[in-house]
Amino acid sequence: ASRLGGMLDSVSYRSINSYIEFQKDLSNSYDIRGDTVANGLTVLANFYKYTLIGDFLFFSLDNKYLEARESYINAINLAREEGDDFLMCQGLRNILLFYSCQSLYDNNTINYYLELYKKSAFDDVERAYANYYELLFRYFYLPQESSSWDEDLESSLLDFAETAWDQVLSSRIYYLIGIHTYNVNKDYQKATSYFRKGLDLISEFDFPLVRLFKIQLNTGLVRSHLFENKLKQAEEVVQHIQQPARNTPEENYKRFYHFYKSILDTARGDYKSGYVHLRTYNYLSEKLTSFQNTSATRILEINYQTNEKESELARQRALISSHRESLVYTLIFLSVVL
């Protein structure tokens, strides 16, 4: 997604179908492998069709997270069928980013994708991405018994980030390590340094994925400034979180603007404004939680229906097999009798 995100701004206000046609023509114009799939698109074009639909649904439309997830999974399945590690790594980046922004996953799914990424990573950049997501999910998202901070992974990722080979990934690494430095080590000054490094790396970029990362990095900065009691600096940075949201993940993350504004206004003695911001933050958080719960319920329903269908198919196969055996025994019996 990070390599394609810059193209999405021009898509968000047009028909996604017209953009797919554009992408198909673009891919066909430089197809060097000549691979085709059933509907006539090249494998590369079909993969990016799924990817771009997923990006469009995820970044640009409300309440379409499950459909986005399905499109990302289709891209991964296509990469698996082709045995293409490059496409597989692209697809795994997308699905892991998606899951890191949403609570719509189970631990087995995440573990599967993390292991698959480690097996598929074919160069230093992809290995760095695999290590980044390994550290991210193990520490922040997976059950406590498997949550630990791997200092070897941290050191390896920091070495990669210093090269700034992939500026977007390097900024993510600084953010992740900055959060750990803030939460565990309580070294707010060092955490601030990591957040600023991450912002500097992507300051010139302006596409959906990076705009979201900027909001997260600025949120980290505000938090560090507050704990250092640097209210003026926190007030300056918090305004960056309030920039108009241009996609759904940004809109969801902006609730933290109201949370930190509540703290800052209260510290200045403006209790009324602080209260209003706190109520807004609580409302937006409850709204997001309600939506995520609804989506999680839908996923359970989908999984249940899938299992029911598979059980019914298995039952029918067993029944057919039983009938076939009965028929064979009947024929044998008749052949003996006759």
Keywords for this entry:
338 residues, single chain, globular, disordered N terminus, disordered C terminus, mainly alpha, 0% strand
Secondary structure layout plus pairing:
Elements: H1 16-29, H2 43-60, H3 65-82, H4 85-101, H5 107-120, H6 124-140, H7 151-163, H8 167-185, H9 188-202, H10 208-227, H11 231-241, H12 248-253, H13 255-267, H14 271-337
Helix pairs in contact: 1-2, 2-3, 2-4, 3-4, 4-5, 4-6, 5-6, 6-7, 6-8, 7-8, 8-9, 8-10, 9-10, 10-11, 10-13, 11-13, 13-14
**Radius of gyration based on Cα positions:** 25 Å
The DSSP helix count reads: 14
Written as H for each helix and E for each strand, in order along the chain, the element string is HHHHHHHHHHHHHH
Q: How many distinct beta strands?
A: 0
Largest sheet: none
Roughly how much helix do the residues carry, as a percent range? over 70%
Name the structural class. mainly alpha
Shape descriptor reads globular
Give the percentage of residues in beta strands: under 5%
Distance between the termini: 71 Å
Low-confidence stretches: 1-16, 29-40, 327-338
Mean pLDDT: 77
Textual characterization of the structure:
The structure is a single chain. The protein is mainly alpha-helical and 338 residues long. 78% of the residues lie in helices and 0% in strands. The chain has 14 helices and no strands. It starts with 15 loop residues before the first helix and ends with a helix. The N terminus and C terminus are likely disordered.
